[in-house]
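Exercise 7. Given the components listed, write out the predicted structure of the assembled complex. Treat all entries as one system.
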Amino acid sequence: MVVVAPVERYHSHHIGALQEPHERIDWRPEQPRVERVRIKEHTCDCKATFYELCQAAGLMFIRRTHRQMGEVIVHESPWVVAKETQGLWLRLLMGSAR
Ligand SMILES: [Zn+2]
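Answer.
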C-alpha cells in the first residue's frame, strides 16, 4: 500500500489586519501600458484579493486583483519610483495602507 502524504499548500505573504487609521491607496483601473511587467513579490492567492509588487519601465507599482463570483477586477497603484512603491508595499503588508 502506498500512502501519499497530503501536499501542504505553499502560502506566501498574507497581509496584516487593517489598521485604523490607514493610508488609502489611490487605486486606478488597470492600464496596459507596457508589454513587460516583472512581478517582484506577491501576496498569497488563497485570498479573494491578492496583491503583486510590479516593476515596469523603471517604475514600480502594486497591482490588486480581486476575484468575485467569476469576475476578476484589477487595479493598480500609481506608477512611481521604486523606493516609494517598496515603502507602500511594506505598509500594505503591515496593514497600514490598503
Ligand atoms: Zn494563503
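Discussion: Helices lie at 82-94. The beta strands are 28-29, 38-42, 49-56, 59-68, 71-76.
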